[in-house]
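User: Can you fold this complex?
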Amino acid sequence: MNFKLKDLGPQLITVIAVVLIFGFFTYNAQINMENRGIDFGYGFLSQESSFDVQFSLIEYDGSHSYFRAYLVGLLNTILVSVIGIIIATILGVIVGIARLSPNYLINKFAAYYVEFFRNIPLLLQIFFWYFAALRALPLPQDAEAIFGVFFLTIKGLYVPAFIWENFNIFFYSIVASIIAIIVIRFQAKKLQETQGKQIPVFLISIGLIFILPLLSFLVGGVSLSFEIPQLKQLAATSFVYDGGLSLPPELIALTLSLSLYTATFIAECVRAGIQGVGKGQKEAAASIGLTPNQVLKLVIMPQALRIIIPPTTNQYLNLTKNSSLAAAIAYPDLVLVFAGTALMQTGKAIEIVSITMFTYLSLSISISILMNWYNKRIAIQEK
Amino acid sequence: MFKYLKQLTSLVAMVAVLFTFTTETMAAKKSKTLKNTQKKGFVRCGVSQGLPGFSNADAAGNWTGVDVDVCKAVAAAVLGDANKVKFTPLSAKERFTALTSGEIDILSRNTTWTLSRDADIGLTFVGVNFYDGQGFMVRKSSGITSVNQFKNGISACTNIGTTTELNMRDFFNSKGISYEPVAFEKADEVVAAYDSGRCDTYTTDKSGLAAQRTKMSNPDEHIVLPETISKEPLGPVVRQGDSVWEDIVRWSLNAMIEAEEYGITSANADSMKTSDNPAIKRLVGAEGELGAAFGLDNEWSLRIIKQVGNYGESYKRNIADTGILPDRGPNQLWTKGGILYVPPAR
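Assistant: Here's the predicted assembly.
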């Protein structure tokens, strides 16, 4: 009994203290808001927002609700985070492996890249890419076409829009090829385990992912045409591209700076992971006749990943949270649209900031859960 | 356990209510903000992050502008010295939170008086020190001379967290023009983006356009279009709930405007004490007991006029002589064809 009390006591006191502190702040905020005639409530979310947003993944204009504006901001945040994470991961893995390259030039180049980009504050890099680098781009009327269809201008990157016919058939063909690949891989693994036979799974996969969609074009009636951006005159010296898809320069600058910055940290994680696998593992693998590719794929990487994943998760979380710096360069992310414009127009500071904080918390926790699940899956199962 | 917790919280609540009650009754006699200001020895004033003519800091950190002069007038009235002001530069997004949370006591930052701001978010507008309206700036070389020449696909740079964003939507919607809004948090970034060609037009209050134009790499390449698309009465704001402080700020501004009306300037204020006009004598503190109403001495308005000057002097010094808007337009006295009209100080 005594032992239990000793154990519970400090925990109980902590809980009471936390509750009291929270209670005090809530009470304090309530009294202050009452004194100043500010009412509290989330009812504003259904009101008409009456402001427009530059770039949105879903249909939105000022006649939609504040909640819709919140979704616009959230999706833009997710968009920049997902693109950023993909580019940063690819770049990070390449640079991380390059740092271990015996080639002096590649090795040093990777090292300088890492040291340069990770030691400059991110906000400065965002400003650099937006206000210095992208500002040097030509005006729409002076832009040279890249491959005849892309236009990189100060007002953004204009790319041809895809116009699909029978898109659903094309989509199903991709799904079918992915399922086929999974089945083949499973069979191949079984074949190797039971009979020791190896089949070129990789080549077959590549073939499948191309052939099936191609068939959908030839016999499925799928067709694809492009809408190429056309230069349109607004006034004597002011032009814009019409038609096609446009990526705002704010999105490009933000993705570029976030990925270049985060890739340096991921590169270091990858290098640490590979170096963390004992030298003997590689030598032993080579001595039983595995090719260098097989050594990397079957022996080094599975062990290195265990070291790489946890710190890389941190970098993914950092990138997602750092994307809130978007507000500095007018990219309409959650902070700019919701905790910026919407907050100003409604004056609901406590409500909006709490929603925004909770949203970032949920985003980060989702990434953590996903990465932890992956980490557990690749962990060595001790028998 | 939870029974005690409930009792404890109600006890805490009771003490807090009692405490706020006692301080409230004291504030009825003397404003809490006024008391704090006198104790601190300076007026806490929120201004813009740099808008020539309204609130702008020079290299030495000295603030000037018509918005700055409102805070200086309050400092002269309350503390006797117009220089006893602590300026806090705020972005459009931060300004109201800074005021309601008590970080500043006056917000004098080219802020538009609207119903929702006045009624909804715990603010009180005390008057108008500049009548403005939203306009558009374009590059001269574009050949655009009127908003009627705007076409679908135009991109417009502006600030977030302002009435500008809402007016812009109303305007383009009514014209049926699709546009790309590019909204930045800081005015300097808006100017930089527009100046480099990211946007075809830059929209904000016309006074702001005129002021920011002076910051462009080549001001002569840009023009402000003649159309005004909204009403923007700009004025100082205080926190809701301190009516004495509200009155002090309101009448400090009114005193400046009324002083111009009666021809009292910083140069002749002292000699006006012997004037025959009782209205003038009241304004320079030679007659009546006007200051007592908000717990100040009788020379509060005399100090404003002597140290800051009347409204006309402030306008000339900050906006006309700097070449921003030499023509006073609606910001002229009602006696001279403008709409500046303040209630009498009596």
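Residues 169-218 of chain A form one domain. Chain A touches chain B through 50 residues (CB under 8 Å).
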